[in-house]
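U., I forgot to send this yesterday:
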Amino acid sequence: MEKFFFGQNLLAALRGMTEQLVATGMLQIEAIGAMLDAKEQLDTQQLLQVMAARAHKNYQPDMEMCTLGSASRSLGPAYRNGQLAAHVLSKRMQDREFASGAGGRGADKVARFNQMRTTYCDAQDHFNDMAGACAPGVPADSINRDVDFRETVGQPLTIDATLTDGASNGDDPHIFALASNLYANDTVYPFQQQPYRNPSAHPAYLNIREIAARRNVAEYSFNSLVGLKVAGGQQGETVGNFAGEVYRQLGFSEADARKMVGRSPSYNAAMELMNKTVYLRPEFYINLYAKPANITRIGATIRAANLMQGMDTFNSQLRSEMNLSQILEFEVSRVHDLIQNRIGPQQAQGALNR
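Result:
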């Protein structure tokens, strides 16, 4: 009876209850699974949104990076143009020294004096004594530019000269005139071919070449400085407009800003802009509060500019060492000649005694 009652009633009921519990449990698990799926989906979406916001923050263009990037655009062309200008100026100075024409140094000085009278003469010099020597109509902006190193080369960030286009325009004549007054004031006399065929004249000719070589070492510093300051070429005209805007942010007028950087900034002007001028603006420090990633990029750019500035300083020190080595060699040669003059007679006297 008990087995019959359990088998016919309870067992079937328990089976139905078990199926119902399993079905209900599966529905609950499905709801829990849907909740877990939704959680993972929302977490994934949140992570993607966080990464998108971080990327937008880190990789958004920064105005200060554009400033430094624009300032560096003309560095390469300006540097190469400056090297070429220094080479051309060196070649011109050598040609002037050894190819002064049939008139020799006299004709060279006459030509330079006439150029001074018509282009650079200041009637007020020497208590107005130059008034009688100066030609009428001397341009006011070129007075004494052939002797004023500060005005011609030292002060301007960009010299309005190219020296490489075969034409004498802008500040080209002023640079040539200043170089002629600074170096080789006395050029070499025209060589006569016949005397130098005599072997006894060879030492004198070699001495002249030695003087020219030593002088070229001193001229190289001047030529390199001019090369660093000549205009950067057509590639730098856009940078010139940008650089003028930076100076205007510092309070310079349009004319003064253009005078500071020139039409096309030189290598020296571009380095001045990157290593000094951009840091004088309040906008530079305001932009440092914007994006941490951009601050890192700006730091890398500043270190790169410092490396370039360090290399320029190193090259300047090399030129100084070359000049010092020439001075030292002059002193050594002088002492060597004194000793040689003392030893020579003693050796001759010893040979007579033998």
